[in-house]
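Before surveying the methods themselves, let us examine one representative protein, written as a sequence plus integers encoding its fold.
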Amino acid sequence: MRFNHTAHRLDARHFETVVEMFTGQLGFVVLRRTERSIWLRQPGANIDLQFSRSETANRDADKLRSQVSFLSDTPEAALRALAAWAEARGLDATVGAYSDREFYLDLPEAFVDWVLEAMRPELADYEVRA
């Protein structure tokens, strides 16, 4: 088997806003769309991101441990810019930190079971063994 995509849930009321954030602010392109879901890819990546509409009323209390993660030389500033973008569209946004090199953005009304993480590139400098 070969890794293809990861899927996360978005509150249906804010689905299009989050898709707009990923396409307009993060450069993702739409690969496929159905009534319930959308598949996105950031140019240069080889893993896709699927978002599914969710009607769930409760949020995962441990959602900080489930992330869609990005690399950035300035992770906190990048997430603060996305938070400002989301707040300008009526969403509450929280930026927090796991450490001084790893930060997260939560849009609690929109992200059901995950947060958006940004971390310094050296944290992903892994030795890969075939």
